[in-house]
Amino acid sequence: MVDYKLEFWDKILPRVQKPTRYLGNEVNAVAKDLSRCLLKVALAFPDLYEVGMSHLGLKILYSLINDHEQWAAERVFMPDSDLEAILQNEAFPLCSLETVTPLAAFDLLGFTLQYELSYATILQMLRLGGISLLALSRGEEEPLVVGGGPGAFNPEPLADFFDFFMLGDAEETLPQVLSFLEQNRHLSRAEKLRSLSRIAGVYVPSLYIPDFDQHGSFLGTTPLHANLPRQIQRAVVEDLDAAVYPEKFVVPYGSIVHDRLVLELFRGCTRGCRFCQAGIIYRPLRERTPAKLKVLAKELVRTSGYDELALSSLSSGDYSAIGQLVTELGMELAKEGVALSLPSLRLDSFSSQLAEQVKQVRKSGLTFAPEAGTQRLRDVINKNISETDLISAATDAFAAGWTGIKLYFMIGLPTETDEDLEGITALVRKVTLAYKQAGCRGKPRVTVSVSVFVPKAHTPFQWAGLIGRDEILRRQNVLRQSLRATGAQFKWHGVEPSLLEAALARGGRELCAVIARAAELGCKLDGWDEHFSFENWQQAFRDNGLELAELAVRQYALDDPLPWDHLASGVTKSFLQKEYELALAAKVSRDCRENCLGCGMSLLLEGKNGKEGKGACHDARLD
Amino acid sequence: MMRVWIKFAKESPMRFLSHLDLMRVWQRAVRRAELPVAYSAGFNRHPKISFASALAVGVTSAGEYLDIQFTKLLDEAAFVRLAETLPQGLKLLDWRQIPEGTPALMSLVCAAQWELPLQADECRHLQQAVSELLSASSLPVEREGKKGIKTVDIRPLIYSLAADEKESCLRMLLASGGEGVVRPVEVLKLLCLPDVAGRLRRTELYVASGQCFFEPMAVLLN
Q1: I want to staple A396 with a disulfide (CB 3.0 to 4.6 A). Which of A308, A352, A363, A583 is the partner?
Q2: Is residue B222 pLDDT above 80, yes or no?
């Protein structure tokens, strides 16, 4: 038998650029004797170590599995080009970090689907791991390949490569899946998959087929057997305090993207921004209690040696006890020299008091996201933030000592006109003025970061298309010209990655062949400029008779069947449709903590635990 | 206040850690062990931890040193805690308290002992080359610096060199600080052993006291 570990550490690692990414063996990494484990899971993040190790979901699942004595979870990331070439040339398989075990030796190989630009990388990792790319051609000895995360809400572009997907909170689904697999090792792949499809939140794509009419128009995706659900419901963890949270973070050697502890305050968001997929697929709002958070914080600091802890959520200012938590936790942590950071603050929840508290320990960068330049457009997207909110937040921040501020906007939102672009410049001017009004001398550093709006499945904007290449370039240019006089720094996202993201985000199974072809052409790590090749992607689309740019701008009619209609987030299509219509009329919807909008989530919870009627999800939170 | 020298080993897999990575590992280990490390004053505060000598990535060592300052007196139990929280491949071997005002260990180190494990026959073949090298009156080597190529005579900086047949290894005591620096690979190149750098191991660092070399843990300080 090959000693992969010896071979890898002694013969391969000395030849790579950043060996610490592939070393495993970090403090708090869990390396079990796999021969004594009943179930071996490889948790794969289809990007470099530095990115994957910054992801909270991976840490949660790592703990969840490894907490079970006879289950083992090991990590694997995409190798950079130097190691990839060595593995390929020397036919050395891609291995897990912990025990340097080839991917093919695991029972289950899980990929997180965080962003579309990582899809080709998944195929590269399967290839490097020596695992058959197509689920249907995998042998009995090969691992089951599962995907989860936001991408699982429209996984059709990856349907051919995955044995199954898990929709929603894996804390709920994964233990059931693993228990089943542990007890049913003798079953064939097909039998396992059929049984797994009965677990709530599990979607087995080979058991569903897309239907087309005689003209080739898509009619919807339907189950192969009558006893399968027509719609797969997302799994929901109701009590986050009781859910697994890692008490020990694996501590990397080299520096990673988010090199700090992370504490998840809550999941879900009640604001209802119409462009935001996370705001839909993580409903309802579920908080951890301050008591639980404090215990976790203390344990995380003690076991890791980190000196920074970030409070994380979709909108941390919305945490019901945010002021109290920041004060108390901040004081406790400061004693130990640990800085508390608070990313993801909505600017209307930013207060001078909060600003002071966060600043006490360390002044991190401050980013606000008005998203759009005019009130009209902010109403369209239901951002529910006013110019007054922004100016007062900026004034508070400047008064508290910040000298720079980053403003985040999107261009290409539905109904956007050049007037909205001018609105961005006008806002920047007012923010600069606020610096003087806060009694500061000179000029603040204002950075305007502009990305391109990419419509996503399961959002009110899922029917809209991307605005298209020429129009993106034109609007970026308009903005660049108009911002010039303000002295603000202008940062924008590349057009081509956005086009690809848009083409993949709302596609169907026809894209499987495209992604396979792109991987063949060498596409990988597409989130990185140095690896991204738009030409190869265009060719991959063309080789399959499709045009990337056309798919990116494709609009769906409100009554079109959508490739993700058979996957339910809990929010109904009719609600999304109503929100889309309100958007086009520039009408806002209120925060659903104030008034239940009937999105459908309460129905999902009702089915689960008998809570009734409108607002049930909010009431459930108060219990 | 308490100032301490710590002796540690850096074994595989930790040999892949860069200087910066290793510093981070120690900083975090000290925090996990809840030891009250002293911080520098000023805007960019950093913990007062420094290494005696940098070690190239990929090389193992049985004799690395750390100079740390704490704000309180610590007992043996504290260092046991620290030893236990180190990742696999880092071993705390010894520690000693040193007087305040002792110069930084980095500035005291003047020589390093290196070993290269060899096959028995390799070792025999080397004897000739070693004695030729030692009998040379000068050994000029070229080094690329910022100002271009410079020639340095390393003969006086090779304090001892021997191919030990009994233990099958090449042993070198080379200047490292003080009078100058010899990189072990420079000697290996002169011995026509270019491709073995991955097997190199540093075994000890020395500080000078009078005419003698001492291990840092044994030298008298006042």
Answers
A1: A352
A2: no
Which residue would you say has higher pLDDT here, A612 or A485? Answer: A485
**B198 part of contact set with chain A, CB < 8 Å:** yes
Residue A326 domain flag: no
Q: What's the CA gap between B58 and A406, in Å, rounded?
A: 41
| Beta-ladder partners of A221 | A210
Residues A466-478 pLDDT 10s? 999 999 999 999 9
Tell me what the pLDDT averaged over chain A comes to: 93
Which of A475, A493, A511 terminates a domain? The answer is A493
- Identify the closest residue of chain B to A26 by CA–CA distance: B87
Mean pLDDT for chain B overall:
92
Q: A179, A199, A233: which is the final residue of a domain? A: A233
Residue A463 backbone phi and psi in degrees, to 5:
-85, -20
Distance, CA of A170 to CA of A173 (rounded, Å): 5
Whether the CB-CB separation of A243 and A230 falls below 8 Å is answered with: no
pLDDT of the residue at B129: 92
**Every domain range in chain B assigned CATH 3.30.70.580:** 2-102
The H or E element containing residue A609 is helix A601-609
pLDDT, tens digit, 9 for 90 and up, residues A437-481 = 888 888 899 999 999 999 999 999 999 999 999 999 999 999 999
CATH architecture of B2-102: 2-Layer Sandwich (3.30)
Q: Residue A11: pLDDT above 70?
A: yes
Closest CA to B221 of B36, B69, B70, B3: B3
CATH code of residue A405: 3.30.750.200
Q: Is residue A574 part of a domain?
A: no
Strands, sheet with A367-371, edge to edge from the N-terminal-most edge strand:
A367-371, A404-411, A445-452, A489-492
Task: Report how many domains make up chain A.
Answer: 2
Whether A531 is covered by a domain: the verdict is no
Q: Is the pLDDT of residue B95 over 50?
A: yes
Please, how many CA atoms are within 13 Å of residue B68, restricted to the half-sphere of its CB?
26
A261 chain-B contacts, CB cut-off 8 A: none
| Chain A: closest CA distance from residue B106 (Å) | 23
Using a CB-CB cut-off of 8 Å, the residues of chain B touching A19 are 16, 57
Contact B198 A20 (CB under 8 A): no
A408 shares contact with chain B (CB less than 8 Å) = no
Residue A358 counted as domain residue: no
Shortest alpha-carbon distance between residue B44 and chain A (Å): 11
Domain range for A84: 4-233
Q: Is A30 on the interface with B (CB under 8 A)?
A: no
Residues 173-202 of A with CB under 8 A from B: none
Taken as a whole, chain A contains a residue count of: 623
Whether residue A255 lies within 8 A of chain B, CB to CB, comes out as yes
In this model, does residue A10 exceed pLDDT 70?
A: yes
Task: Average the pLDDT over A277-286 and give the result.
Answer: 95
Give me the residue from A20, A25, A251 closest to B28, CB to CB: A251
Question: With an 8 Å Cβ cutoff, is A305 touching chain B?
Answer: yes
List, for residues A24-83, the tens digit of each pLDDT value.
999 999 999 999 999 999 999 999 999 999 999 999 999 999 999 999 999 999 999 999
pLDDT number for residue A117: 98
Least confident of A106-115, A191-200, A612-621: A612-621
Average pLDDT over residues B46-62: 93
Closest Cα in chain A to B24 = A253
Name the residue of chain B whose CA is nearest to A338's CA. B31
B31 contacts on A by Cβ (under 8 Å): 305-307, 336-337
pLDDT value at residue A622: 44
- Where residue A199 sits, what CATH number does that domain have? 3.40.50.280
Q: Taking CA atoms, what residue in A is nearest to B85? A: A27
Q: Which candidate in A7, A9, A27, A50 is best for mutational testing of the B interface (most B CBs within 10 A)? A: A27
Q: Tokens in use for A573?
A: 């299509």
pTM: 0.94
Mean pLDDT in residue range A390-410:
90
